[in-house]
C-alpha cells in the first residue's frame, strides 16, 4: 500500500502576512501536482472487457461514458459486508423484486445455457451459472449492481460479489414459491376446507384452480395436466413423495403439481414450460409446444412413461462399476488427460449420487488430517466458509508451536523413540514415524491457514491474523500464511520484524543432508526478510538481498526484484524503482503482483502516456484481474478525471475486497475533490481492512487537518505513529499539526526527525524538500532568522528557484528589520510568478519601509548641515574681531587666503552632499 504515497506541499509561507487565520487546506497527496488533461484511452479503458460481448454497435467510448450516472452524482463509498449485522436483515434484500420472479421456466443459465449450478437473480429474475469470481452471476452482480441470488437446487441465498450466504425469514416466501413443500396434514386439508389465497397484486385465487399458460400450441397438454393434478391419490402422491432418485419426467411433474396447489403463489397462474421441455425430449419431439396432438394419445404415453419413471433407481454395486470408473479416471489423470477425467468423473458422480461418499463412508475426514484439509479446502473454494470452519474447528493446535519447552520435549521423545526403534532393530520404522509426524504437523499448519481464510472472509481480521501467525509458527515453511500477513498488512512494521524473530527456522531440514539444514534455515529466513516492511531496518533487508543476489544467484528473480523496487519506492527513488519493474515486466508481462508498484512509479513520474498503454493492454487482455481496473483508474486520476478514476477504483475493490491500492485510490478521489467526509469514510474502511499499515491513519489525519480539526488530526497521527515510527511523511504531518497548534518547538523536533530518517534510509533529498521548508517556517516562528534562512537556501539549492521560498526569505528579512535585503528575493519571486499577489504585497511593504529609512537618513543630514552652518558663523565671528599688532604686517591677509580654500572645500562638500541627497 505504500504505492499510494505522495508528499505534502510546504506550509503556506505567508499565512500571517496575508491575514489568514486558519490553515490552508491541503490536497491529498495524489492530487498535489497539477496535471494536464490527457486524451482518454480507447474502448479498452472505458468499460469492462466483459461487456464487449454485448457491445453497442459502433458506439464510441466517450458516448458510453456520457450514459453513466457518475456525471450526475458523487457516488458514496460502497458498503462491504461479510454477513448482515446481527439482528438486522441484509442491506441488499430491499432490492429484491418479487414481481419479476418466475421460477416456472427451465433452469438454464441465460448466457451459457447450462443447467449446472444455476442461480436466479432476485432483482431481475434471470438465471446465471455459478457464483465464483469468474462466473456469469459474479459479473452480472458487478455490471448491473444486482446482488441477491438464490441457488435453484439448494435454495440457499447469497450476496454477490461478496459471496456470503443470507439467512433471513423474509426470504421464506421466495424459497417456498421456488419449491413448494407440503406436510401430510396440509394435504389432507386441501379437500376439507378450501382456503382462499391472494397473489402479490392482491388478487384472490383458489389453490389448485389456477390458470396454465398456453405457450404456443400446448392446450392439449394443459388439459391433461390440469385433470391429472385433481386426481386425489395421484395429486397427494406427487405432493408428498421425494422424487430425487426418480426420472426427470417424474421430478418435473411433481414440481408442476406442487405449484398448481401452492397457496402462497406470487401470481394466479403457472407455466408448464419445464415439464413440456422434458416431455418433448423424452418423446423424441412427438409431443411438442408447436404442434397440436391428440390429448388421449398424449395421456396414454404420459402415464406409461410416468409409471416407468417412478420406479426407484437401484444403485449399482460399487465394487464393480465404481471401481471401474475410478480406475479409468485415475488413469486419465496420470496421463494429464483432464477432459477424459472430467468426463468419467461426471459419470461417477451421477452413479454414486454423492460427491463425498468415500470420505464420509470411511470417516476419513475425521481420522485423517490430510483428508480433512482437502475437504475444507474444497468447501472454501465453493465459498462455503461456515461449513469449512465447522469442519476445521475454531481452535488452533498451539501445542505444536515450537518453543523452548516443546523443543526439549521433542528431543526427549525423539530419544525415547530412537531407543525403542533400535530395540526393534529398525531404522525404517523410525524414519516412517518421523515422516508421518512431520506430515501431520504440516497439515495442521495448513488447516490453521484455512481457518484464517474463513475468518478473513467473515471480516474477523483479528482472528484471521492469529490463525496465520500460528500456521507459520507451527510450520515455518507455510509461506501462504506468511504472505497473507504481509500482503494484507495485518502486522505493523515493528510487529513484522518481531514476528520474524519468533519463527523456528531451525525446524527447516534437508532430507538426507544434515549439514545443509542450517544453510536452508538461513536461506528461508533471508527470503522472508525480503517480504517485510521497508520502513524499518533497511540495512537488514539490504544484507539479505545482497546475499541472495550474489551467493544464491537470485539477482534476476522477480520476487527479489520486486522487494528491491519496493525499497526504492519507499526511499522516493521512483525512477530507479521504475527501471526494475520495467525489467521484470519485459520478462513476464503479466506478473500482476508487480503492477501496483509499477503504476505508482508511473504516476509519481507523471508518465501519462505509459500509463495509458499499460491500462489499455491490461483492460483488453485481462479484464478479470482487479489490477487491470486499478491501472485504468490510475490513468484517469493522472489526467484529472476524478469521477472516472473513482469508478474504476471502486470496480477493482469490488472484484477483490482486500485489494489495498484500489481502496486507497478510491479514497484519494474524494480527497482530491475536497469531499472530506466521504474521503474519511473510505480511509476508515481501508484502516479497518488493513490494520497493520499506518497509511490510512495518516490520510485520516490529513483530512481532519484540512477540516481544521487539529485534535482529531493529532489523534489519528498518533495512532499511525504507534504503528510506524520511521516514516518521514508521518513525522512531517505531525510537525504540521504542531505548527498549527502554535507549538513551533515540537514542530521543529518532528521536522528534524523526518529529515534525519530520510537520510538514514538513503531517500532522495529532493523528495523531502517539504519537510525542510516546513522546518524553516517553524524556525521563522521561533525568530531564529539565521537557521530559517539557512534551511530556505538549502531548499533553493536542492529544488531550484521557487517563488514561495523566495517570498518566505523576503518575509524573514522584513521581520528582521532588513527591508532593503528583502527587495532582491521578492523581485526574484515575481520574476518567476508575476501574478503572485502575496509577493507583490510584500515587495510594496519592503519598498515602503526602505523609504522610511531614507527619510530618517535625511533628518540626520539636516542636523549635520545645521551644525556645519553654526561652525561657519562662529568662524566668521572670530575673523571679524580686532587683530593683534603682529597681525598687521600682512599675515592676516595671507591667512585669509589660506582659509579660503577650506571654506571653498566646505561649500564644495556642502554642495556634494546636496547632490547625494538628490540622487
Provide a descriptive summary of the structure in words.
With 919 residues, the chain is mostly helical. Among the domains are: 116 residues, Cathepsin B, Chain A, CATH 3.90.70.10; 31 residues, no CATH class; 73 residues. Helix content is 59%, strand content 3%. The protein has 40 helices and nine strands. The protein has a five-stranded antiparallel beta sheet with strand order 2-1-3-4-5, with helices on one face. Strand 6 and strand 7 form a beta hairpin. Helix 10 packs antiparallel against helix 11, helix 32 runs antiparallel to helix 33 and helix 33 runs antiparallel to helix 34. The longest helix is centred in the last third of the chain and has 43 residues. It starts with 60 loop residues before the first helix and ends with a helix. The N terminus and C terminus are likely disordered. Keywords: Cell cycle, Cell division, Metal-binding, Mitosis, mRNA processing, mRNA splicing, Nucleus, Repeat, Spliceosome, TPR repeat, Ubl conjugation pathway, Zinc, Zinc-finger. It comes from Verticillium longisporum (Verticillium dahliae var. longisporum). This is UBP-type domain-containing protein. Belongs to the peptidase C19 family.
